[in-house]
Amino acid sequence: xxxxxxxxxxxxxxxxxxxxxxxxxxxxxxxxxxxxxxxxxxxxxxxxxxxxxxxxxxxxxxxxxxxxxxxxxxxxxxxxxxxxxxxxxxxxxxxxxxxxxxxxxxxxxxxxxxxxxxxxxxxxxxxxxxxxxxxxxxxxxxxxxxxxxxxxxxxxxxxxxxxxxxxxxxxxxxxxxxxxxxxxxxxxxxxxxxxxxxxxxxxxxxxxxxxxxxxxxxxxxxxxxxxxxxxxxxxxxxxxxxxxxxxxxxxxxxxxxxxxxxxxxxxxxx
Length: 270
What we know:
With 270 residues, this protein is of the alpha+beta class.
């Protein structure tokens, strides 16, 4: 692995990223195998891929995440969670190339086939997307994701996270965990290691997070990049009306609490 900041790196363009992904997993037989993995991974459809991007691109993203000025980062705190986010990609040219590739028609068609989602849509506004970084003591409490993109008026379909944390020690916690529909026990987990991707289907009880505080050394951090994908549907599911991320659970009703109106769900910290 190249030492960050020691070399002048060459930008990895969007078409190179597209070609890399499709050269590894773009044939019909490979896509059928990925679809099988996706459909039958509990607790709900999930796909885990390793070495997702070219090495140079991962290095660029890692370096970029360290060099983006502090003013472009914000702190996410909700229901006891804590992490840093960078949604403004003005100073992130490699991230912009990644977004361009992952929003391309070629990759959208590829993801649609693998994940059984017709007419998959990207989000040009990048709502909730971008770099994410967690340090020692940080955590992301178990929650279910927001299901409605107000900017695009579209419904959540898929979540995508790419990790590029070098030399991550599993003893430091930080694995993304997927829990059962009653939020009682963990079913599966994936480490935030270099080149890992986790892609999963939205579910109103799709509980996930990394709830245990990270125990890495003070000079290390967990880092990745996330994107969300959507579908257009003229009819809301009355059983799952539009809401933001939910961190509170009604055990008597056995479902997340929300008031049925976007932006007015009751959360742990309210």
